[in-house]
Amino acid sequence: MSIRWKAEKNKMTFADKVIRFNKNLSYTGAALPTGIRIMNPFKENLQTMDIVQKFYHKYYNDNQARHLILGINPGRFGAGLTGIPFTDPKRLITECNIAYAGKLSHEPSSVFIYEMIHAFGGAEAFYKQFYISSPCPLGFTAVAANGKEKNYNYYDSKALEKAVYDFIVENIRKQIAIGVHTGLCFCFGTGKNEKFLLKLNAEYKFFKKIVALEHPRFIMQYKTSSKQFYIDKYLSAFNAVNP
Fold first, then answer.
1. If you write DSSP's letter for every residue of 91-132 in order, what string do you get?
2. I need a surface site. Which of 70, 83, 126, 222 has the fewest CB within 10 A?
3. pLDDT at 7
């Protein structure tokens, strides 16, 4: 590593590092099971990297470490379009004031996250402390029985989980290197995602502790009447960390 390269790296902000990470994302894991397609919004959609640059320069243009939140993997109607985790095109425009050209899709998880962010104190306050990503930063899709493409999670089949295991390990390491706190990591999903991350963390010791919260999709699909309870639960967990 040259002295010049080191100097350039040291000048990079948190935003610069995330942007570089996303720009260079390419699936390097084992062959995927039949019928599963990799979804890389940073290479498939022309406007995504422009959105990514605007978003991270707006909220992360500093050298401050963040607390990492790991979802599952990008979905078709949120990060699959915008490149921003849990941010669909509608929330990108109305909450982040960043332009989006195309169909304004709606993702229930994004609705919950931005209601929670509002309650936290707004996007600027939230993103100053937290960085949302995924164990697998690229998404997956499969074809449903009706012939339509649907979201697919990395843990939805043992074959897929095995195929992407090394890729997940590699990318968690890369994201830690961006500049996140390793004492505590948050996890969206109190079922399979939590189980997988706890097992992975026991092996690699990425974080001292992982705190799981119910996934936004689960809340919006099954617990809508108790939504405020879960917003309060999120806030309690997030406010317990030191900024």
1. HHHHTT-----S-----HHHHHHHHHHHHHT-HHHHHHHEEE
2. 222
3. 47
| H or E segment to which residue 32 belongs | none
Alpha helices in 12-156 (DSSP H): 14-23, 41-44, 48-59, 79-82, 89-94, 108-120, 123-129
Q: pLDDT tens for residues 36-75?
A: 999 999 999 889 999 999 999 999 999 999 999 999 999 8
- Report the share of the chain in percent with pLDDT over 70: 95
**Residue-level length of the chain:** 243
Which listed CATH number (3.30.565.10, 3.30.1330.10, 3.40.470.10, 3.40.50.300) goes with 12-238? 3.40.470.10
pLDDT digits (tens, 9 = 90+) for 81-93: 999 999 999 999 9
Sorted by sequence, the CB contacts under 8 Å of residue 11 that are 6+ apart come out as none
